[in-house]
Design goal:
- The chain contains twelve helices and 23 strands.
- The protein is of the alpha/beta class and 457 residues long.
- It folds into two domains: 364 residues, Glycosidases (TIM Barrel, Alpha-Beta Barrel), CATH 3.20.20; 66 residues, Golgi alpha-mannosidase II (Immunoglobulin-like, Sandwich).
- An eight-stranded parallel beta sheet has the order 13-12-11-5-2-1-15-14. It has a five-stranded antiparallel beta sheet with strand order 16-17-18-23-20, covered by helices on one side.
- It is globular.
């Protein structure tokens, strides 16, 4: 089989594509559907009736709008063996969730409300039940699909040969991204769902896939879908490489996520100040996807040693540049600890009730805090492409300014100490939103308090 693969040359600078500006106006509400909708833990038996669970998202569309969001980011909904990341068919909706008609209904229901839809593309690896891999198991070297994978025919393993898996998980078979048929597979899957109205793709484990592959597939897909948004899951490394060489629009900002909760736990705002400088350098080239929680990490309310500082984490999320994302349940102060074991993600991927009325009343104050901060961000759309500048940094206090390209400016004051702290604030300012403990001409922020200020007119 011919193996032309992806081009060896890569663009030296940013891609030259005229993009819609809609991603800069989106605040995502991220949902893990298999958990959220209470689906079975494993694939349904062959011939079982389809469960039309996707339509149960209807009452939550208004909920996310009332929260202030206008994007629904879905974790995998394609046919899979168990958790969605062991995909079996990229063009079929998992019968535990619904079918094509359910997806069409959901996309239409979202778009009628002004909600953008982001799908999760698992294109680094597949499940062992993936038909191409099943053919390899049956026919070994004679299989025409053998070049789709990294096979070691002399390797040890229960199958009589070895293959590259994803991060030690034998159930996840890594695709060979230099194989032309794999390139076609991913391009076809992306285009298929974009044709049906999806607005963009989160690219799972993008860090594990060669940048040249992303450049080839994404650039081809853009020819017919120039307004689509592509965000890669990237944990470490030089984030702009995925923009410059991979042709993606954004990546997940894990460095900022870590520094937010770590600086609050260690009472060391110097870490956050340093990371915001690094964040500035990224934002000069693209708008990262920012978050304090997702389906792969311990929930922020559990991660923080002192949950009283949850507001401080949210203040940072909604005032720094980037494209913010809220993981379902975080807006209700859900707790959950991720564990490194089989089923260790279950605690951070729980089922939601049938509607918002079924939520615990104790979570609504955190919901209203989200509403206030998201509402502020919507009134200050320039924050997406702004830059931050540290003004005052101690272990327990942090003041920074957020500066827009048009001269816009706000100042953020954070105090984690058990006593009040008076920040030096020059000139007249208006308090945009704050904890209850902000007073005086120099603006003393109370114990574990915070404030967002703007120069007075």
């Amino acid at each position: 089989m011919a193996r032309s693969g992806w081009p060896g040359s890569r663009p030296a600078g940013r891609r030259e594509v005229i993009m819609s500006d809609w991603p800069a106006r989106v605040i995502w509400w991220k949902v893990y559907p298999l958990g959220f909708l209470g689906a079975e833990p494993a694939a349904l038996p062959s011939g079982a009736d389809v469960r039309h669970r996707l339509r149960s998202l209807q009452p939550w569309l208004d909920y996310l709008i009332e929260l202030g969001c206008n994007g629904l980011a879905l974790n995998p909904i394609f046919s899979s063996e168990t958790h969605g990341y062991d995909v079996v068919d990229h063009l079929r909706i998992d019968p535990r969730l619904g079918d094509d008609a359910d997806v069409d209904w959901l996309v239409d229901a979202c778009h009628r409300r002004g909600i953008r839809v982001l799908f999760d593309g698992v294109f680094n690896h597949v499940g062992r039940s993936f038909p191409a891999f099943q053919d390899v198991l049956a026919n070994r070297e004679k299989s025409p699909f053998a070049p789709w994978f990294h096979i070691d025919w002399d390797g040890d393993g229960p199958d009589g040969f070895g293959y590259q898996n994803f991060e030690g998980h034998d159930a996840l078979v890594v695709l060979d991204h230099q194989c032309p048929e794999v390139i076609d597979l991913v391009e076809n899957a992306m285009g298929h769902w974009l044709d049906r109205g999806v607005d963009g793709w989160r690219l799972d484990a993008a860090y594990a896939v060669p940048l040249g592959f992303w450049h080839t597939v994404v650039s081809r897909t853009r020819r017919s879908h120039p307004d689509a948004w592509f965000v890669g899951e990237v944990i470490h490394g030089d984030y702009p490489d995925w923009i410059r060489q991979g042709d993606l629009d954004s990546v997940t900002q894990y460095e900022l996520w870590k520094s937010i909760w770590s600086s609050l736990n260690d009472l060391n705002f110097h870490e956050l100040a340093w990371n915001l400088e690094r964040h500035n350098s990224f934002c000069e080239e693209f708008s990262p996807l920012t978050f304090v929680g997702n389906h792969d990490v311990t929930r922020i309310a559990s991660r923080l040693d002192d949950v009283a500082l949850l507001a401080h984490a949210l203040v940072v999320l909604f005032t720094v540049p980037g494209v913010p994302s809220v993981y379902y349940g975080d807006e209700q102060a859900f707790r959950g600890v991720k564990e490194e074991r089989e089923g260790g993600d279950d605690a951070v991927r729980p089922a939601f009730p049938a509607g918002p009325d079924g939520l615990d009343p104790g979570g609504w104050p955190t919901y209203r805090l989200h509403q206030g901060l998201i509402g502020l961000r919507r009134r200050l759309p320039w924050l997406v492409t702004a830059r931050t500048e540290a003004i005052e940094v101690t272990n327990d206090q942090f003041a920074y300014e957020v500066l827009g390209a048009g001269g816009e400016r706000i100042r953020v004051l954070l105090n984690t100490a058990d006593e009040g702290y008076r920040f030096e604030v020059e000139g007249a300012v208006d308090v945009l939103v704050a904890s209850d403990d902000v007073s005086g001409p120099g603006h003393e922020v109370g114990p574990q308090g915070w404030a967002i200020l703007q120069p007075a007119d």
